[in-house]
Design brief:
The structure is a single chain. 40% of the residues lie in helices and 13% in strands. It is built from 18 helices and 16 strands. The chain has a five-stranded antiparallel sheet with strand order 8-1-11-10-9, with helices on both faces. It has a four-stranded antiparallel sheet with strand order 3-6-5-4, with no helix packed on it. Helix 4 packs antiparallel against helix 6, helix 8 packs parallel to helix 11 and helix 14 packs antiparallel against helix 15 (372-385).
Amino acid sequence: MNVTVAKVKFSESTNQRNGYDDYDTPATRVVIVRNMKSYYYLSAAAAVGDTTARLTADSAFNYPAGSCPLGTGASQENVTVASSSGSTITLGSPLTKAHTAGEPLEFPASGSSSDPILVTEGSSSLDILKWTIPHEFLMRPAIATSAFRMVLRPPMKLTLSMIPLASVLTVQSAICQTTENPTMPTNAQDYIAAFRRGEDFAPPAKGVFVGDQPDAAALQLLGQELAVAKPAVRENLVKLLVDMGLRTDPLTPKGTEVLRHPEIVELLARPGLARPDMGREAAMDALRTLVAQPDLAPFENAFVKALSDAPTEEAFLLVAKAKSQKAKTLVDRLANSSEWKNVEAAKIARAALGDQDVENEFLAAADVAQDGKALAQALGSLALIGTPRSLRAIAKRLRTPLTIEVPGALEKSLRLNVLEALLYNFPDQPVLYPNNIIREADYTAAERFCTQALGVTYKDPSPPFLTYRGRRTFD
């Protein structure tokens, strides 16, 4: 589903700010969901002339009478689904293009009664809300979260617009904001003009591609504006650039969220960090959560300057992710100041840049964790540190039998938290994404990666297979 997505700040806790679970923070939550679409993915290649195709799902969820898109970019074509049997669908007519395994098939999602849909859970925890939404749409796959959206990945994907609202009037306003703009931008200059008028970026990006890649001329124009624009415009430019990068990355159909386009990464790291405003924070968040450390390394000087000019928690975490050794003296000085000495992000940066005494404190917290929630929080901090020692400490727990329980809602295997902690450091590895875990063999594939990349071996038996287990229904 492509709709306007509001950046949601569910609490002030470090874990929630950095993308890890926090079940104890109450808040009134209203979710607006519109234009739902579900995505299945081809489990095998399909050739021109084929009249059947196999999907990664164990069974097809539903199929419409009309046509629906299969594939992306130049390989996309509209097909009709005449029937389904298990994971095999029969098409209304032969394929006119070849398709590779992993390409998406887009269905309108069924099970909804209106558009938009409002789901209200009062003061329920975030995870209860996350479980309610797919239930209300008659779906129960595992859920992954990010700062800007919730995404269900293979065998099916659903993107939800999440907007916390204080009143019915605010709800009505938000519904209006999610309505597609009739003058949707069709090129980079249109986007800039729209952002200057106060409009927010609404994916998908359009008119800024050449073939299946971002248009170089559009990137140049967007980068020039990013360097000089007002904060709100800069923030929307960052969102546009991120969408362009994710949408064109070959790993996206495999369920990843990784930003690897070198020009886009450079724009975020240079003009994106030029001024301490909401645009800078958005750029830092994208760089930290979507870019692998080796791709951050060339911009070490920019990260050090950003931290020096205007220290923020996001700036500390970015130099930690990038392992910016040039920032070590600065980090040590700031971390010992009265303003930052008790802030976890500063401690994380010190540990990431080689302070083993500080890192030992975080490792010890994981060792003494007595339950799933405490261990999940400890693993989240180790992920942000991201040294080989911390990553091995995370990876060796991939066979943990512990779970996290949300009373009355669901039970989550802590193995998924282990994967989330690892993929923060290896966002280009599809085997580490929790929503790619469908069967025990998928956990085994993740273990093989940990053995090859981190030297971790596994001797304990694997616990019974689990991702999520529902505890009750919401009707």
